[in-house]
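User: Please predict the structure of the protein below. I'd like the answer in structure-token form so I can feed it into my own downstream comparison script.

Assistant: Understood. Taking the following sequence of 115 residues as input:
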Amino acid sequence: MRGTICASFAIAVALCACETQQQAVDKMQPEAVTAAQQRGAFELDCPGATAQVLSKEMMQSRNAGVYSAPERAEYTVGVEGCGKKMTYVVVCAQGGTGCVAAGSRANAPTEAAPR
């Protein structure tokens, strides 16, 4: 009886500790924004550049035999400053140690529309 109670408790704790994919994406978002903002500030030569998330999703990994790649969150982040703007695709591996901001398809900075 006591073993059953302990096992039930352990299962309940394990289930409560699991996070949804959306929670994982939301948890990694600040690091993704920072990675894009830092790269954008450098490439735009604009230390005051700001970044905002345009889209985000959890990418499912494919199993390849014994090896399975970690799940990754992918963000599209717009960076704007000093009259210019760029878009970056940022990838963060779940349980990883950081995010990578890659240039978008249109890698050249464009002039921001006047406000």
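That's the full token string. The mean pLDDT is 80.
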